[in-house]
Amino acid sequence: MTPSVSRRTLVKGAGASFAASLFSPVTRAAEAAAPASEEWSGWTICDSCNHMPMCGIHFRAKGNTVIRIENWKEHPNHFLCSKGISTLQRLYNPNRLLYPLKRTAPKGAKDPGWVRIGWDEAIAMIAKNLNEVKAKYGAETVLFYCGDPKEPRPPVMRLARYFGSPNYCCESSVACNLAYVHAQELSFGGEVSGGPNGKAKCTMIVGKNGSWASPHGFYRNLLAQKARGLKLIVSDPRRTKVAELADVHLQPRAGTDGAVAWGMIRVLVKENLVKRDFVDQWCTGYEELVKYCERFTPEYVEAETGVPAENIIQAARLFADGPSSMMLPGQSIPHQGNGCNNVRAYSLLMALTGNVDNAGGSTFEDWPEDYVRWDEGYTRSFIDQKWFNEPEQKAKRIDREFAPVWNEMQVLCNPNKLPEMVEAGRIHAFAGFGTNILIWPSPDEYKAAMRKMDFSFATDYFYRDDTHHDMDLVLPAAMNFERYAPFGTHGRKVSARKPVKPLGEAWEDWKIALTIGAACTGDSDLFFGGDPVKACDSILNGWGTSYAERQAMLPNVNVCEWFPKPATEKYAKGLLRFDHKPGFRTPSGKIEFVSSVQAKHGFPGLPEYTPAPKPTAEYPLKLLNGTRRPYITHSKTRGDQPYLLELEPESVINMSPDDAAARGIAEGDQVWITSPYTSKKVRARVRVTIMMQPGLIDAQYGWRGDQETQDLIPRKGWDPISGYPCCNDVCVQVTKAQA
Ligand SMILES: Nc1nc2c(c(=O)[nH]1)N[C@H]1C(S)=C(S)[C@@H](COP(=O)(O)OP(=O)(O)OC[C@H]3O[C@@H](n4cnc5c(=O)[nH]c(N)nc54)[C@H](O)[C@@H]3O)O[C@H]1N2
Ligand SMILES: Nc1nc2c(c(=O)[nH]1)N[C@H]1C(S)=C(S)[C@@H](COP(=O)(O)OP(=O)(O)OC[C@H]3O[C@@H](n4cnc5c(=O)[nH]c(N)nc54)[C@H](O)[C@@H]3O)O[C@H]1N2
Ligand code: SF4
Ligand SMILES: [Mo]
């Protein structure tokens, strides 16, 4: 903290009284605003790619203006990428939404007639409308939703809870990586994974391109581990930077991973590489597994997946010679019709080789019992997770029929059938925080659903016409440089921020959610008087610390002793189950090769393999609709951070040299993409690259107008175990556009 700022520190209560008496008060941005001539240091977390934990930003400000951003060198993730650096352009983008807007024209009108209103009017309007819908149709007909922004989630979930709607959803229950966690929970009762670490002899990375999608440390660590002799298996149809380091690069046809995994399982069984003592004591369903794997002979697997038989055998042997760890896919394979089962099949390799919660293998998180990740509410008590898990609440959720396994297992509701649910009268109002309708296949159907709502609002950094056009209210959210909440957790380390004051009349999402909660319920205490810092302290005080204490430590980010020290074999020590008995958090207490929850809902309990849609003469190319690029995040960074738009100003698809040559396409040519599911033609430019194998192209979704690839994906054939759309299971044709 610079002297110029500490002079202006205001002595004002911050959170629970014990914290306030123990520690100095929180420095509030409003009070800290220094004269324009004085420079001071602030600290925040980057939210530009939303993978977690995020990178720390140290900034320099003059008065209330951020003038420079730098690496926060004491932070665990301290190297900023191009997206992080350009968040400064986003902060001062002249198009930012800075005032609450209310529509004055009827929904569906070409011009919504937006007018600026004050916060008092906006909050009163929200409370009145949501409570009216609740009285008329039931609280559960209000859908609370957070998009990819992870930071608003805990208070929005608390708002849904005390408003009384179990229909709380977020982007992670639309798509993203929660289906991978879901797949793991079905077999292991929790997430078990392991990046390349110092004790691993072998690591297998499946459908994950960490060199681009989680850049901090991932690639450097991988290089270091390779240098000390780590064996690396990578499964990825593309030749990524990660795959280029592999000892065995399995390059299956997209969508065929289940066959690869079962082929490896069969090798373990046939070559007596299964750790029988571990399997007999801790797993169920081994006999069924042995029987089912029979059909996945190396010859069949080679024909089905395109992976040479000897590579399957070599990969299985390498993995069995552990300790071995496994990193399973974030969003790639889960976005396939058989995604969950394909992930589950791979994950069983860990159990079969005894590489579960062991040194050098894959481990469960070392978390206190009450803790859940910050994107899921921080603590079970903050969001009252028990309430969401009551059967009575589960029965009111809109995912109960179309994704019953998900409904039973997951606390977050899956909203992918929103259009159908609005049509059926099961959803009447929408409360969105950072919402983007372009994340869904056939976005027009979601736009139409929004138009039919009795009432809807969203908070955002920008006005997005695609999403907001037919809403009743659009509210300005403060950006990461301008907010206190949430605090950060990075393993056992906990960080606070020192922000600038929001521009215009933007409010922190936490303040918006808490203020709406207080207004809807009439209980201000339940929502901390609308104060994000007090809400953070309600969690942090339980951890023996406070926001003020963490802020006073800046720039240091220290361990919070509430988090237990890392341990292995937690399952044997009774550290995983809520009843503290040895075993796993599954219904049987064992690792379930045959999932009892899947079986209960009428699905095969084993993660069986279902072949993915295959290319045809008319649509000969498989499309990966949404692989990450290092300089783009989804739909949002492009116009918001103009520097990034300069790097890739329009939709670019990657294509193999063979496919390009066969179509007379050269690097930079404009093309049309067509699919069997729409009459629309989608425009793109081509990059010709050996990263792609013949028969495969990749694209970025979320471009607007005729570059939007979401229309190419069907609204059927979705994964029945997760209810996720099959963004990566589509076959298309590409033709060169006439000059
Ligand atoms: N075809 C296809 N579809 C996909 C995917 C794919 O790979 N292919 N990926 C899926 C995945 S993994 C994801 S994560 C989703 C992407 O999830 P989205 O929700 O689409 O993420 P963004 O495009 O980042 O858009 C989020 C919106 O929130 C706003 N915003 C950003 N930060 C904040 C904030 O802190 N507060 C508020 N109030 N607003 C904010 C942004 O301005 C933007 O309008 O898309 C999914 N859909
Ligand atoms: N730069 C940047 N970083 C991001 C994001 C971003 O938008 N931009 N988004 C963030 C979000 S929300 C998410 S969910 C994560 C996603 O992080 P990742 O899941 O690592 O993202 P992808 O780049 O899609 O990497 C997936 C890899 O899987 C491969 N793949 C696709 N289909 C298959 C298949 O059938 N089998 C196998 N074995 N592999 C397959 C693809 O070729 C690709 O290389 O990234 C996060 N980080
Ligand atoms: S990797 Fe880049 S965009 Fe993602 S949190 Fe770090 S700096 Fe921000
Ligand atoms: Mo995601």
Report the portion of residues in β strands.
15-25%
For the record, give the distance between the C-alpha atoms at the N and C termini, rounded to a whole number: 59 Å
Main beta sheet strand tally, sense and closure: 7 strands, mixed
Helix percent band: 25-40%
Rg on CA atoms, Å:
25 Å
What does this protein look like?
The chain is α/β, with parallel strands linked by helices. 32% of the residues lie in helices and 15% in strands. It contains 31 helices and 27 strands. The strands form seven sheets. A seven-stranded mixed beta sheet has the order 5-4-17-16-15-6-7. A six-stranded mixed β-barrel has the order 22-26-23-25-24-27. Helix 9 (178-188) crosses helix 17 and helix 15 (298-305) crosses helix 16. The N and C termini lie far apart (59 Å). Residues 1-23 have low confidence and may be disordered. One ligand MGD is lined by residues 49-51, 148, 176-177, 206-210, 212-214, 235-238, 240, 252, 254-255, 257, 329-333, 624, 627-628, 630, 632-634, 728.
Main attributes of the structure:
binds iron/sulfur cluster; binds molybdenum atom; alpha/beta; globular; 32% helix; binds ligand MGD; 739 residues; 6-stranded mixed beta barrel; 15% strand; 27 strands
